Write the structure tokens for this entry.
Amino acid sequence: MDDLIRRAAKDLAAARNVAALTGAGISIESGIPPFRGKGGLWERYDPMEFAIDALMRDPAKVWKLFVKELKEPLDRAKPNEGHKGLVKLEARDKLKTIITQNIDGLHQAAGNTDVIEYHGTFAWQRCMDCHKKYETRKVDISEIPPRCECGGILRPNIVFFGETIPAQAIRRSRQAAADCDLMLVVGTSAVVQPAAMIPGIAKDNGAKIVEINPERTPLTDDISDYLIMGGAGEVMNRIVAAMD
Ligand code: APR
């Protein structure tokens, strides 16, 4: 691993426009469970129990899952060394944009300024009738499902299975991938589309792809220049230290 850490530090030092694609793996060390693999949400639930159809069918049932499996862990979570490492890369004027699949807002909480929330955010709710938005921390969830002043049911401002990625997120992510000369891919299993296509766009535009994950992914053989097999916190800390 030492060689790869030094290689990543050298590549980042030479890079001018770094982008990062992040997934649930970078927030595991903040106490937020991943979706797949050991302890993953989809080990305990059928993903369709969290799909938009399920919410329309039985909002109260799905909201109980939201509160237990999403809101409570998110309310407790704080940025970890993995998030902080990306802030340090931004402070060194290397990292320009983060494209995250995470709905936890931890990159912004850590201090990164340009974060594309590809799958939306749990920090906001919106009414399914009038589309009025509410900050989640101000929403009273003593009554489930929570309702808008118009009477409509509130839903998290996230992209559910069965919904499309907002056009602006797609457009901005494609641009960031095409413009970067190095993309860090941190903590994603790279199996969910269209997010998993983003490193390929960067590669096709000449960028170096550096993957950080304790496990290999579908990107490792064909897209990534190299994979650093380790946890985001430790690896990011060691890379930044090697850059100094
Ligand atoms: N540091 C970095 N990566 C880690 C760590 C760690 N400490 N621990 C585990 N990982 C890796 C796992 O090996 C796995 O490849 O994080 C990845 C987590 O994968 P998923 O749970 O599939 O998360 P993600 O890729 O973000 O899922 C994509 O799927 O369910 C949907 O909308 C949901 O945004 C989510 C999307």
About this structure: The pocket of adenosine-5-diphosphoribose is lined by residues 23-26, 28-29, 34-37, 40, 101, 119, 187-189, 192, 213-215, 217, 231-232 (CB under 6 Å).
